[in-house]
Design a protein that fits this description.
homodimer; about 280 residues; mainly beta; twelve-stranded antiparallel β-sheet; globular
Chain lengths: ~280, ~280
């Protein structure tokens, strides 16, 4: 990516074409490539992008669940987004991504559901105030400890819970806190936020201090911010905090929170992750 | 429900008929009726029941997301459960419930996704040990502070965070802990566990100490237990803990954990809930 490039890599990845309402085509981009497929967060963001671009959309994203059913291969894919029920202030969507399989026939790689909603001003409160942490400028950018291209698309400044430097089975916590933003910086929107909810490396690597194969099976993101608040957040950093609750029989869960620099919760997220031992 | 009744009310509610693979018919039952429709947990359990009964099912439930798109009315409904992708050790499902609308045409009331998986023995750990709380016998059964029939289907013994007795806007916490089990007692299975993940009254009632209209929009349950562990848990109590993280613009989230009496995490759950002010 050079400075002459006219389109941000995230916008390049989120580019969808549509000739029939609700039917989209897109393609994976090298910029967000992980080890054997795209970064899961970019797939989540792409699904949400289809909803954002749909002419029948009501309101803004409230909830997103993405199920990673199979590997998405390099190349083109089709995406279907359907508003199955529209109420006065909420709308329910079902989505899927398909890609040609080995025999050329379409195969479901990803399923998702989205709820969009019209937000109103109400009483509000937080039960998860932002933890007291050093400011982004006081935290050093992460060393790239494993080689996946998508890691270069984020500026990450860990506060605590960095990737272990010794893979000695000596872990004792699953908690990571880090400042993050798109690289290069890009004004925050719902798609970018959805992707960042999946930025954390597998909790088992930290808790176990062993780098075993792991991959998200299902992720859910709840959006607590409206578009105005995201616009106010702009290109500022987000503080992300993630930890596991339970590791058992090849699966662990992760619960995560994302605040902006002003200390406002923008999203909460949960995922269930496969790990191999 | 009398003692002569030969079928447990939960099994009555979960009864589904199927003549075509993946197509089910069921009906709401009075036993789990809430204020304007069935208890959301029983709808979640019913969707999972369709997967449990499907002849093509691989493995056991790992993840369940239910989106409450519209009110389910009293009477019959149809339920569709489709395994859209089957891998070696995981299987991805999409589900929906439909019911005849005012004009007789079918309307989507609920959508869901489920992941089932084959569990293997691996290294495991918990980062959420069960809190130290009094034993179930030391906690008094809840007084029925609001009148919904479904509340009688559970024995609830609150530890902390009971329903306020004064609706004075004086709340300061959103945390509830309670012991719970089916009433009458019934050996635990995946469907019963899914329902119990939704047992907590709306967090806004506690945090705000104001009883405003509220309803779950989307719930996700991650199952950390296999069938063997559920069978071991049997008719014992579960400790449930729920709290909100953020209340804003008419929606709050809830994060919950359920342990058995031996202190093992059986499920973690998250939901996003509408509230009106």
């Amino acid at each position: 990516m050079t400075s002459h490039h006219s389109i941000h890599p995230l916008d390049e990845a989120l580019a969808l074409a549509s000739e029939t309402t609700g039917q989209y085509t897109g393609r994976t981009t090298p910029g967000y490539w992980n080890m054997v497929g795209p970064f899961g967060g970019i797939t989540a963001a792409t699904l949400l992008q289809a909803v954002m671009q749909h002419p029948a959309r009501l309101g803004e994203p409230l909830s997103l669940t993405v199920n990673y059913a199979g590997a998405l291969g390099e190349g083109p894919f089709t995406l279907q987004a359907t508003p199955v029920r529209t109420n006065r202030s909420t709308q329910h969507w079902t989505l899927s991504i398909l890609q040609a399989g080995a025999d050329g026939a379409p195969v479901v790689t990803t399923t998702a559901t989205v709820v969009t909603a019209v937000r109103r001003e109400t009483w509000g409160a937080t039960d998860t105030p932002m933890p007291a942490v050093p400011a982004p400028a006081q935290c050093k950018p992460v060393r790239l400890a494993f080689r996946s291209e998508w890691l270069r698309r984020y500026e990450m400044r860990p506060v605590t819970g960095e990737l272990p430097t010794q893979w000695d089975d000596g872990g004792h916590t699953s908690m990571t806190q880090l400042w993050m933003r798109d690289a290069p910086a890009r004004p925050l929107d719902f798609c970018a936020l959805a992707a960042m909810a999946d930025i954390f490396f597998p909790r088992v690597w930290l808790r176990r201090a062993r780098q075993v194969p792991a991959g998200t099976v299902s992720i859910t993101v709840y959006f607590h911010a409206g578009g105005d608040l995201l616009a106010q957040t702009g290109t500022g950093y987000l503080l992300g905090q993630a930890r596991a609750q339970e590791f058992r029989n090849g699966f662990f869960d992760q619960t995560a929170l994302l605040w902006n620099e002003a200390g406002i919760v923008l999203a909460t997220s949960h995922q269930i992750v496969y790990y191999k031992e």
